[in-house]
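REVIEWER CHECKLIST
Item 1: Sequence provided? yes
Item 2: Single chain? yes
Item 3: Sequence as submitted:
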Amino acid sequence: MRWHKNLRFSFRALNRSRFRTLLSVSGVAIGIAAVAVLIGAGAGADLALQKSLERLGENLLAVNASLTTTGALRGEGRMHETLTMDDWRRIKDLPSVKRAAPVADGGGAVRVGARAQSFTIVGTTPEFHAAKKFDVVTGRFIDDDDVALRHRVAVIGAQVVDDLFFGEWPIGETMLIGNNPFTIIGILKRKGLNPDGTTDDGHIIVPVSTVQRRMLNVDHLARIFVQARSKDMIPVAEAEIATLLRGEHGFGRSTYADDFEIQDQAALLATQKKMSKSFGSLTLGLAALALTLGGVGLLAVSLLSVRERYAEIGLRIAVGAHARDILIQFLTESILLALMGGMAGVLVGGACILIGGQVTGWAMALTWETVAYPFLISLGIAIVFGAFPALRAARLDPIVALRSA
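Item 4: Structure as written out by the authors:
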């Protein structure tokens, strides 16, 4: 039988049972819509996480001073004090490194008039501005002169502005960090939450030399943020930094253990994906249940269609139709039902993604996978759940079929 005739017969058969066809299409559509929404939610979550990581800085590594045990009690220890400004200068000159920013930080009580609150004080250099994407909305960032001359200047985050200055921009005003007066020279753009749930909006940025000498009285660093020249250069930069620091800190000792840790964004991304895996498994299970119910509905409709059309099947076989023709016709009907359900499901799922993302504020994205995968799934449903009724129709004995009609 030619394909155009086969399609014509299939459309006629489906049109004769419009209500049953609608029920079958609806069952498949619900399952496909669930899958489309699941894919859209997953893509949106990955996109949101990627944007959050980009807000932290592109191609970024964090070289942290590691913890060393200082006593018999489990967990008792202190941070190594071997990460220095000299290490920063050497690291930023490595071939794979685009820029590096040293950090000496700590909590500090900040006072403005009668108002006082604790914030994170970050001592760093001008490179921090670009490496960590701390944009200034007004004023300026710290510069090399501020670091060289140990100026008491500060760039404050949006949360500091809200808490201490009631949202007004205090450029040029003075605040006390501890007992040291600092002049506010810039205000940072609000960044929001990081992927780990923390925020940088409560940071106060000051020159690293000022923190080390005037506030903490130390000559070591807590960490160094390193920006690789490209994503592909991140492993190279990590290896070069490790080799450099081991050579500088190890002094050739065979018993030397690393006094630093290197973290990258890939590790953070893997952690976040692992945390969301349980939710994804639950959603995937619900989508699988919906697809199964849609497939079972398609199977039931196809079996009922075969039973009601015994006379048609027997007559067609009697006048010369082959079993293959009967098989193809009923399988085509199942495919048409599944594809119509898939199309309806994709449209409903796409609408849910677009409208739901706007209404709920959830991170959802409409991607090509949202369209392609559900259609492939609907085709699989047609083959899996439509094959048995089609085979049953093809194997009918024409005499038995005509007698039972």
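Item 5: Key structural point noted by reviewer: Residues 3-52+276-404 form one domain.
Item 6: Recommendation: ____
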